[in-house]
Design goal:
This protein is an alpha/beta fold. It has a domain of about 200 residues: 3-Layer(aba) Sandwich (Rossmann fold). Helices cover about 35% and strands about 15% of the residues. The strands form 4 sheets. A 7-stranded parallel β-sheet has the order 3-2-1-4-5-6-11, with helices on both faces. It has a 3-stranded mixed β-sheet with strand order 12-9-14. A two-stranded parallel ribbon has the order 7-10. Helix 6 crosses helix 8. It is globular and about 55 Å long.
């Protein structure tokens, strides 16, 4: 299948590209490179540097490469920033997303796999979280992702769009070729690794008085390769499905891991000290976020291969050792 990957020069997008190529698909990456990296794009893959709001360029790419389906990952994703600059999130996550849907409609592209988020649930009413649970985002990031899910549903009803929305929990880890490199970094596992390497004086742990097994927040970590494979499975099953719209949670399952457990596991893997600074709770941080991924397991047969936290962190550590300066050396050949 000929697939356009928006945001394909980013962390998760790079590994999605890798797995799409491994499965025999042809891809073209569409990325503004605002946060992405050219070296996160597989060697030999066409890269179009452009914004989704540039509808003329986007329509030209869809037609030039005879695109059959889109994996839509381009988005802004910092919760705190979304609270202080909601206009940016509505513009880039929703308005640009509608531009993509319009370009797809005008170019005869009728399939999309969407990178959504657990933030659509807001403060969860129970654990583990199921797709049928209430949707009540507490920040513009989650709100704009949910609004795009709603747009896809209405486009599906009116224009026969087929879509699958994948609601991520905490993506983590790395493949051999591609890993996590953000500026600034906000995700726990790379922050832990940076602290162990002495690039940070200490790791801020926001709250140690939550109702969890050790007082720190508990999250569901899913390996980025497992996430990527879920995109491939979702894409390839779209033709066989009788459903025009599908929604799946993507988590690792089990009981999740606390911040302290992540830190202690990293200490064991790296054999280094990781100084910790306990800070006040951050507003809006739920105590626990754990996914039920039973729907995608049952309907698509997806199973995460990396369920052990030490393997997830170990893969991130291996990639960081091989790429100490981030994306300077790239290239993947399937």
């Amino acid at each position: 299948m000929r697939v356009l990957v928006t945001g394909g020069a980013g962390y998760i997008g790079s590994v999605v590209n890798e797995e799409l190529l491994r499965a025999g698909h042809t891809i073209v990456v569409y990325d503004s490179l605002y946060k992405g990296h050219t070296d996160a794009v597989p060697a030999g893959t066409p890269l179009v540097k452009a914004d989704l709001a540039d509808s003329e360029t986007l329509k030209g790419v869809l037609r030039q490469y005879r695109v059959e389906a889109v994996v839509h990952m381009a988005a802004d994703s910092l919760v705190g920033e979304s609270m202080t600059d909601p206009a940016k999130y509505y513009r880039n996550n929703l308005v640009a997303g509608i531009s993509l849907l319009e370009c797809m409609r005008n170019s005869g592209v009728g399939r999309i796999v969407f990178s959504s988020t657990a933030a659509v649930y807001g403060e969860p009413v129970k654990q583990p979280i199921e797709e049928s649970d209430p949707l009540a985002p507490v920040n513009p990031y989650g709100e704009t992702k949910l609004a795009f899910e709603h747009a896809m549903r209405w486009y599906s009803d009116a224009y026969d769009l087929r879509y699958t929305s994948l609601r991520y929990f905490n993506a983590a880890g790395a493949s051999a070729s591609f890993g996590e490199w953000h500026t600034p970094e906000t995700h726990l596992i790379p922050l832990v690794l940076q602290t162990a390497l002495g690039k940070r004086a200490s790791l801020d742990v926001y709250g140690d008085d939550y109702p969890t097994r050790d007082g720190t927040c508990l999250r569901d970590y899913v390996h980025v390769t497992d996430l990527a494979i879920a995109h491939v499975v979702a894409l390839e099953s779209m033709n066989a499905s009788n459903q025009r719209g599908r929604i799946f949670n993507l988590g690792c399952g089990g009981d999740g891991y606390t911040v302290r457990e992540v830190v202690n596991t990293a200490r064991e893997i790296m054999g280094r000290d990781i100084p910790v600074q306990i800070s006040p709770r951050r507003p809006g941080d739920p105590a626990m976020l754990v996914a039920s991924s039973e729907r995608i397991r049952r309907e698509l047969g997806w199973r995460p291969k990396y369920q052990d936290l030490s393997k997830i962190i170990g893969s991130a550590w291996d990639w960081l050792q091989a790429h100490p300066s981030g994306y300077v050396i790239g290239g993947f050949n399937p």
